[in-house]
Amino acid sequence: MANPVVRVGVIGAGFVGAALVDILLDPTRRVALVDAATAELELVGVAVRDARRERPGVPPELVRADARTLAAEADIDVLVELAGGVDAAGEYVEAALGRGVSVVTANKALMAKRGTALARLAHAHGADLFYEAAVGGAVPILRALRTSLAGERIERVMGIVNGTTNFILSEMTDHGSDYGDALAEAQRRGYAEADPTADVEAFDAAAKVLILASLAFGTELRDETIDRQGISGVRALDVEFARRNGYVIKLLGVAERVGEHGLSRRVHPAMVPVDHPLAAVHGAMNAVFVEGQRSGPLMWLGQGAGGAPTATAVLGDVLDAARNRVSGRHDVPFMVDDTLVRVPAGDLESVFYLSLDVADEPGVLAAVAGVFGRHRVSIQSMEQSGFGDEARLSFLTHRALTRDVDATIEELSQLDVVDRVGACIRVIEGGAA
Ligand code: NDP
Ligand code: HSE
Question: How far is the CA of 163 from the centre of ligand 2 (A)?
């Protein structure tokens, strides 16, 4: 008996789209794909903005400029959205789902803003909406949360979910580079964009935390902001302080239960103990560390970006969607737990590291210590190093409320004797951020 045929349309032939087309058309993979899809996958069209440009590996007869028509009218079973952005991509995805066409996307920005509404639309029309590649590139963490850990009570998800920032921090750790040089190297290697804001100010990681939290805890994906601090304030001296004290600085995306009904979602640099599994994640790699009530700690590690690695995650979703088509079913969207209450980062306690550049003169230390004391922030240790007329003070606090530390920083930055307040970095002790 002939295999059923599942017709696939792709929007986008950039890094990820071109790599996906390459696998879909690779004759040596055909049998494996048919086995996994329980169908022949027929690539019916690849929509781009500029259809006149030559695209090695993408047959010219498949290239078209009408993404809207492909999504809204073409005879397809699965639409793969790899264009990026929110408005046009959202329109294509909605058009496809609205007529019962399953959608696979790698678009974290779209999913973080409109994921729940899109998942409901998919369900209402008997279609799938899969987005494994939106978090962690090739790392199959969303499927693990959605299936293997579906019945587990997750306590915390903690991830290095942005390869660019992990590369920059690794360069600073391994080579003593300062932030600017490490960023320039990331740009030279093609990790960081010319405008690196989305990565270094942690917008990209924040969208991924929202997606992870929605699957781990049942929060809705609907254009929320979370507590977010990027890495642009991290200096070589902070990295060196961390090294001397047995830590490495990482940008962590965290979603964790606080008490029975609280949930914190945040992204910030953190000092991670060198013996924590996340400390060993180097360069542009991604990793997600999950702590479940019964499963205990689990970790996934792999390439979080790049055309071919990301396309493998997209392909896995395409095969899942194809199998569902053939068997006439679709996956139900993620659950929503509306009993969870957002806990702002200000309400959380942590040990903090803070560095200050101050005038090196009598009374300065007392003035600075007084500010900590006034805001109930207890100092655990302090280091001083001198340079010219200035001194650098590096503090570790005892556990303190984040909002008290924020108030301390606010008042310190008003002091005449303080020239600069450096990055304020949470310290992870015994697994708590
Ligand atoms: P690229 O910028 O390399 O490619 C985008 C492609 O989409 C191009 O072919 C472009 O056409 C096409 N396109 C853009 N807008 C439209 C539109 N409105 N209508 C039709 N076609 C359009 O992006 P990437 O491949 O890097 O990323 C694609 C998606 O995958 C994004 O959502 C991204 O966040 C996600 N992702 C990417 C990763 C990566 O490592 N690159 C990792 C994980 C996720 P043209 O070529 O004519 O300009
Ligand atoms: N810019 C992202 C990163 C890749 O550096 O990890 C896509 O999510």
Answer: 5
Cα 398–343–430 angle (5° rounding)?
40
E strand or H helix that includes residue 381: strand 379-387
Q: Output the pLDDT for position 272.
A: 98
Residue whose structure tokens are 């805001």: 375
Instruction: List the residue whose alpha carbon is closest to atom 7 of ligand 2.
Output: 305
Closest ligand to Cα 67? 1
Quick one: fold of 345-427? Alpha-Beta Plaits (3.30.70)
Ligand of minimum distance to the alpha carbon of 47: 1
Class of domain 5-137+307-327: alpha beta
CATH homologous superfamily for the domain 152-303: Dihydrodipicolinate Reductase; domain 2 (3.30.360.10)
Please indicate, yes or no, whether the overall pTM of this predicted structure exceeds 0.70: yes
CATH 3.40.50.720 occupies which residues in the chain? 5-137+307-327
Neighbours of 265 (CB within 10 A): 26
Q: Which of 108, 159, 135 is nearest to 298 (CA)?
A: 159
CB 252 within 8 A of CB 278: yes
Coil, helix or strand at residue 301: strand
pLDDT lower than 70: segments of the chain: 430-433
| 113 given a catalytic annotation | no
Q: In 3-state terms, what secondary structure has residue 350?
A: strand
* 218-264 residue pLDDT tens: 999 999 999 999 999 999 999 999 999 999 999 999 999 999 899 99
